[in-house]
Structure formats: C-alpha cells, structure tokens
Design a protein that fits this description.
alpha/beta; Rossmann fold; seven-stranded mixed sheet; three-stranded mixed sheet; 8 helices
C-alpha cells in the first residue's frame, strides 16, 4: 500500500513563515490625529505574525486617524491609557502624525506609559513624528534614532544621534522616518518584538 506524501518544507523557511509573535501582546499608543497608515499597516503585519494588538489612548472609546491632509477613520480604543498597565504588554508601537504625539507628550499618563517600557527593557517602535513623545519621556539621550526630518533638531537637542535612514535599531528602540519606510519598519519590529521576553527567560 502506498501513501501520498506532501513535500517537506525547509525548516528555515518553516521558521520564517511561522507565526513568530504568537502570544505577544503589543500596545499601540495613539491620540486623535495619528497618521492612519502608520497604525493600520504595522498592526496588520504584527497580527499576521500572531501578535495581539491593543489600541491604548487618552481618548474615550474611539480614536480618529489622519490620512495625509484630511481626517481618516475612527478606531475603537481597547484600553484607556489611565488604566493600562505597561507590564501587561510585551512591546509598544508609537505611530506618527503631527497632532497625535504633540498632544500625548503633554499628557503625563502617556509619557509615563512610554517611559515604563524603557524602564522594563521592552521593545519600543516609533515612526515619523512618533519619536516626539520619547523626548518628553527622557529616553533618547545617547541613542541613535531617525524620524520625520522636522524632528531632527528636537531629538538632537535632547541628546540623540539623529540619522537619515529608513529604519534604525538602537538596543530596544526601533525608529523610522515616514510611511514609505513602513515595509522596512514592519520587518524590523517583527524581528525585535519576537525577541521580547527572551532576556527574562534566559536569566530566570
């Protein structure tokens, strides 16, 4: 008796194609006016890899995106930033948009939420204007970062080494410049977020 067999997949390819973020919980911190594609595209990429994503916001119930020059769609808020516990998440994503980080950097609970991820050594990813709030959290000094070009003076004045690259990884911080960088940004954050918690497993 013979049995039909299916080709055996390459173990390396198998690993690459597997859901690398199964069990990972990612907080996405936004206020009204975030650049919509900078939330939706990374969110979809993370979820395809098995992550569970949660929109955390100072806005009640729903938060609204911005698409280029106009208001975009509304998204349900999963958790108020005042109630969210950074310890419940493995990683943090900070989309850009001008209004979004400019508002949140003036809200103490948002700033403290961001700072807690750095205090706990967890990966943080910020794109476009997203790194603005990192300045107020006091976490960019002596780090190499990128961002939307208009932030470079602010970041350098805060002690960062600003560079013009599509994606930059400095320890647990990943930054990118703009929506065109999203494919490279997504690849970098999936890799970084997949390692979240590994240090604790190694030292346990």
């Amino acid at each position: 008796m013979s049995f039909a067999t299916t080709p055996k997949q390459n173990p390396v390819e198998d690993s690459d194609m597997a859901a690398r973020l199964d069990g990972k919980r990612v907080a996405i911190l936004v206020a009204n006016g975030f650049e919509q594609i900078e939330l939706t595209a990374p969110k979809e990429a993370l979820e395809r890899e098995g992550a569970k994503t949660y929109i955390v916001s100072p806005e009640p119930n729903r938060v609204r995106g911005w698409q280029h020059t106009n208001w975009g769609d509304e998204f349900p808020v999963d958790m108020s930033v005042d109630s969210a516990n950074p310890s419940d998440y493995d990683a943090l994503l900070l989309p850009g948009g001008v209004m979004n980080p400019d508002k949140m950097r003036m809200i103490p609970s948002c700033v403290q939420f961001v700072k807690a991820f750095f205090d706990q050594g967890k990966p943080v990813a910020a794109i476009c204007h997203g790194p603005w709030i990192l300045i107020n959290a006091g976490v960019v000094a002596r780090r190499t970062v990128t961002s939307w070009p208009s932030l470079q003076a602010d970041l350098r004045n805060a002690g960062a080494n600003w560079v013009d690259q599509e994606v930059v990884k400095d320890a647990n911080l990943i930054t990118s410049r703009k929506p065109d960088d999203i494919p490279a940004f997504n690849q970098a954050i999936i890799e970084a977020f997949s390692m979240a918690g590994m240090r604790e497993l190694i030292t346990a």
